[in-house]
Amino acid sequence: MAESEEPPKAKHRLLIRAGILIITHSLLVSVICCTAGVLALLLLPILAKNTYISENALLPGSARSMLSAHEFSDANKFVKEISSSNVEAASTGIETPRLIAQHIADLGGEVSYHKFHPQLNKFHPLYFFSSPDPGIVQVNYSCSSYGINTVGIIRAPRGDGKEAIVLVTPYNSLNITPGEALSLGLAYSVFSLLTCVSWLAKDVIWLAADSRHGEYAPVAAWLRDYHAPTFGGSGKPNAEICGEISALYESNANQFIGSEIADHFRRAGTIAAGLVIKVADRSVDVTRDTLSIYAEASNGQMPNLDLINTVNYLAVHGQGLLVKVEKFWSLLDSKWLKVFGEIFESVGKMAKSLNPQWVFGISAMEYIEGTATLASSLYNQLMQSLWKYHPSVIGTIRQSKLRLVEGVIRSINNLLEKFHQSFFLYLLTSSNKFVSVGVYMIAFALLVAPLPVVAASLYSDANKRSPTSVKHKLSSSPTSVDEAHITFRSWRWLSAAKTVFIVQLWGAVVTLLPYFICQLPNCTPTTSLLVWVSLSVFGLVVLHLVLGSPSAFVSASQPQEKEWALLKSVTVSAAFIGLCLMSVINFATAEIGALLIVPMCLMALPLRLNTSAHTFRAVARAAFNVVFILVGCPVVSTTSVLVSSGFGLNPSGYGTVPRTSLSVWFTFLAGFYVSTFCYILVDSPH
Amino acid sequence: MEVPPQKKRPWFWSWSIAAVIFRLVLVYFPSSLNLSSRPEVSTPVTSLRRRLEVITIIFCADFVTALLIRATGQNLQVAYGRSLELLGLSRVSENSGLVPLAAFGWVIASHLSLYPAVIVIPVVLLLGYGPDAPPRKYLLRRNDANFGDNLSSDSSSEHRGLKTPAVKPANFLWRPVVLFLSWASVWALYVLVLCWMSVKEYGGLWEMFKRTYGFIITVQDLSPNIDIQFSFFLFCGYVGVSLLSPVMHNLWIWRGTGNANFYFATAMAYACFQIVLVVECVTAMLNHDRMIRTKLSTAKA
């Protein structure tokens, strides 16, 4: 009935014709787009632009330094005192805080102690939608698991106290290395300078962070308490069970007349910028002093590029330091990268010879370094390590370093508003070159562009058959027991969508299980891993039972290829939506996820459908599928082991701990692996 | 707030009888109204393909859903009156037996149609917490006033606000919820026993579960009734845009790298999909009308 009366197709508009053309040649389009995406990713170091100071108010280097030899000698004295006190006293860990507090009080700043307990990494699945609850009270902590941060605050004489600049110097109070003592001395000298300058308009906070439980814990705890005020008496000193701390409070109260050590939390306004200063210990013989900048992100948020630009500008042009940005050293030796670099260099030279204005080539060495830096930048954004911290100084204390820190603080001091002008979304390829979001998104878009094309082509293929089979079912007796087939052609994807949704749900549950498993008391790593694996497999079995029965009915009404095509189409569309959303949240996760997921999505095919045709192409495709699954599953499982081990079994929080975004990516990946895995290897008609 | 019970009852019964009659009319006089061909009215729930489902769906599902809503409303009224009493405003009569009725209504309604199953969440919350109105701050303020008289000699003023009032309307009471769940399971078991008895010759209860997921209405009836061309594209678009909204919230509020324009863009994308959906629905209905008209004209000719 329907086929004979089909009206002649009207000529479509140009856009629709182009769309239909792309869909019919979906294979070619996907190959081209994928290779273009990967190529664009490799081209990024060449497309990097020079950095520039975007906020005009910063004016780096325009003021003369006010540091004198007096501050320099004070710093050296302070370093000697710290080193000697550390050697003498039995390291109870309160000598250095006491010393620092005494010096800060002598300078006239406000000083307070911040006692903290290193929290276990509190991952909660809903942290993406809200900030972590600051009111988490930790109970049953022993006296050995605490740390004392010393906080010194200078109130700006001309400021209104609304904004603050934070200087962080981490040190291990139980065992101070010479480098940490140097960094404390550097911060002390800058602090002492800032107490007597007249141009200070923002408050300055010096946080001497006790990193005996890891570098991340003290700053995170201080930031958490800083941004989460509690009212009503919680600041009053409780009956201190731990003897040392009460001794610390008492002794300080006795020693200082007129300036008491505050025992409540002191604040100083919103934090405009933060600098973490660390002096390296290794006595490498370098001819020039070097400055390493670590621009690190948390959950895909990078620090404002202007801050890095300011430091870089002052270091290079002001003090003549050598500035380095963190990079993957292993990539510097890779051969294929060298090959690429040389190819690009030759192409650039050729273009320049054709037209002298086409200057876009860079040397092979620069390309390799740029790629290593880019990879490191992507990796740091992915692993969301630590907090946003910036320059790190290598070498001994020199006046150049002091002047650098003073210059940076002076520039930030000029700001009227928080950093807002320059980029927040960028990738660094060297200390003075960056790739902004508008450029790296193109590479990502090219990589994921095949996904909707393939989904549309599969969907139109699945719907192409005329609904004769559907009509036949309609005319059969209505009393036949319920068949789960859809009468209208346009809604046949509903069953596939339901399947994909259930599998994704399973993937999400599996990813969130470690959080709940670690709530169990007395779980060792092996038992929790076993519990997790067994629960996942159990879920998979339940899934198969639930999904297994309806497929028998659907396959009766439509052939298995159609069902597979619809399923793949829905999965690929879901992958596309997920990747696009992820790219907004955390680009690095989305990019690396796309590099893994897009080939898998495009090449997946059920083995049973494939084995009928014994061509080389079919065999190669089947082999690729199997390899991908076998390689991917261990990757997925090891990453999940890492994730679960990061959740509760690493209390020091040292190093990189995956957080929300990685787990979201992981849910995603787990869901896709399972949906592909199930229907490649397990799909069977009953 | 007092309503005399005698006046209330005839009013309720007359409306319920009218509702039943209206549904009977819909069932037994379909051709004169020609409702089944109108896609606006002819949803899968009211589709007239099978007599049995007609009776069960139109009668029971709607009716018991209405009963459930009424029971919830009465519970609300009772609790409202109770909280007014706390404010010292009026006295209300007791009302019991509502929880079992609510449980019955929910079980029957969700057994027949999928939609009422989601009502369980607000029902549980209502039963546990009591209603929102009047706001809790009125209660606290009134209790504080009481305490103010008593503690006028108390010098620690910061503790006044922290003392809990004598009545705590904000606590979650488990008893009505447990009662509701137990009654719901009782009624569910009863319905399942009835189903078992009726499907004994078709393969038993397990067969029914496998094919209908525990519902009498088949999956087929839950599928949409209109043939829209770009349904898949629209569905993906809707899913994508709805998921974009919390992402933009995170970007704007927690990260500071976004602003309100992102919300506007999301709203515009959503509106675009709405436009496509409306156009497709209208086209489908027009095509449907055209098809019927051509069929009628060819039948006449």
From TrEMBL, chain A:
It comes from the Eukaryota. This is Glycosylphosphatidylinositol anchor attachment 1 protein. Keywords: Membrane, Transmembrane, Transmembrane helix. GO terms for cellular component: GPI-anchor transamidase complex. The chain crosses the membrane at residues 20-48, 437-459, 499-517, 529-553, 565-586, 592-610, 622-643, 663-682. InterPro entries: Gaa1. GO terms for biological process: attachment of GPI anchor to protein.
From TrEMBL, chain B:
It is a multi-pass membrane protein. Keywords: Endoplasmic reticulum, GPI-anchor biosynthesis, Membrane, Transmembrane, Transmembrane helix. InterPro entries: PIG-U. It is found in: Endoplasmic reticulum membrane. Its main location: endoplasmic reticulum. GO terms for cellular component: GPI-anchor transamidase complex. Belongs to the PIGU family. This is GPI transamidase subunit PIG-U. The lineage of its organism: Eukaryota, Viridiplantae, Streptophyta, Embryophyta, Tracheophyta.
